[in-house]
Amino acid sequence: MDILQVAQNLIRFRTETGNNAEIKKCMQYIKSLFHQNNAKTDIFQKDNLAPVIFIRNSAEEEFDVLILGHIDVVPAPEEMFEPQLKDGKMFGRGTLDMKSFAAVALNSMEYVLDKKLPLKFGVILSSDEEKGSKGTEAFLAAHPHISAKIVLDNDVGGNILKIVSKCKNPVFVKIITSGEAVHGSTPWDGTDANERMLQTLAKIRTFYPYYSKDGNIPADKWVDTLHFAKICGGDVSNVISNYCETLCDFRLVETSSLEDLCANLDRCMGPGASYTVVSSSTPVVMDENNPYILDYKKFAEEILQKKIEFEHIGGATDSREFAVKGSTVIMHSGSGDGMHAPGEYVETESVKQIADIQIRFLEKLVVEKI
Which pLDDT value is given to residue 31? Predict the structure, then answer.
């Protein structure tokens, strides 16, 4: 498979999360790549949720290896959906996050099929990872017994010399404050919901400090973080607001629980203030001495001729659903920059290298009879 060509073809589909017409076209293209193989390929969709494409060589639900990823991307101008190759880089929306590495997964699938490797192997690509992975949740609910000894997760792009061993738990919380609307010239006749929100958020900051590149930077970055993703309150300038809401994005390390977070929030809720946990997950924490991870790391270092280190990241990953089932999750991707930004790019050589590392690792698993 020409990985870079397949990556470019994927990028040309405008698969912004929620653009289901384009997402379905993209999935049909992926399905067409395997029409001459003996792959089992299904496009799963429940109700109006985002579809998931599932490609595998086994009808069983207990896999040796699965690769997880997604084909949806964040919004971008039209020109970013025409990939550009320049100076060893591929520019465009989804080059780094993560269509190049979806192409890598498809290449590994083709290799397993063509070589008839005796591995129960599959690829799962979702299409709403950028907005909560509800489609993936529905897919997993429909396949309650699906499992994998090893999960390869390429959705941690940025630096091929880093293998991720820890991801935080993302928790999204909505805070609501209520008040009493009156004319803006007589605030003493009402209660300002916006003011109540400001006071509430200030209390929350006593538990979860504000960090920024030009302000407070923690010495140890493996800490709980919070940013106020969206604050909305009031309709017009001359009326005291009677309603305000804030969407909070908490990222918790593995030693912090949802119960701890709720206990802190309870302490911050004053009159007219309440909160709802919109969604929560679980952190992914891998033992850096896991033999499968060490084997993978060894192959990667041999191919790259460079030392690879472990790192921790604040982002979430869909592989958490398998980590809680006991899978060994290997989180490794290629190099690039500008994820979600106008200048997004991937280093094309790193895409080829990730593909080589995966294939050598799969061949080793066959020898070891995983």
Answer: 96
The residue written with tokens 């709403």 in the block is: 128
Measured CA to CA, the distance from residue 336 to residue 358 in angstroms comes to: 19
Model confidence pTM above 0.85:
yes
- Beta carbons of 267 and 204 less than 8 angstroms apart: no
User: Which single residue is written with the structure tokens 């869909």?
Assistant: 318
pLDDT at 325: 92
CATH 3.30.470.10 fits 3-167+283-368, yes or no: no
For residue 358, is pLDDT > 90?
Answer: yes
- Nearest alpha-carbon partner for 147 in 127, 125, 165, 124: 124
Looking at domain 169-279, its CATH class is alpha beta
In this structure, of 28-37, 79-88, 96-105, 240-249, the range with the lowest mean pLDDT score is 28-37
Rg (CA), the chain: 23
- Residue 359 and residue 111: Cα distance in Å, rounded? 8
- Sorted by sequence, the CB contacts under 8 Å of residue 265 that are 6+ apart come out as 173, 175, 204, 275
* Omega prior to 269 cis, within 30 of 0: no
- From residue 147, alpha-carbon distances to 45, 156, 308, 314, 332 in Å are 20, 21, 28, 25, 20
In the chain, what are the domain boundaries?
3-167+283-368, 169-279
Q: Specify the pairing of strand 147-153 against strand 328-332.
A: parallel
Residue 246, by phi and psi: left (phi above 0), alpha (psi -120 to 50) or beta? beta
Nearest of 166, 167, 226, 219 to residue 200 by alpha carbon: 226
* pLDDT tens per residue across span 296-337: 999 999 999 999 999 999 877 889 889 999 999 999 999 999
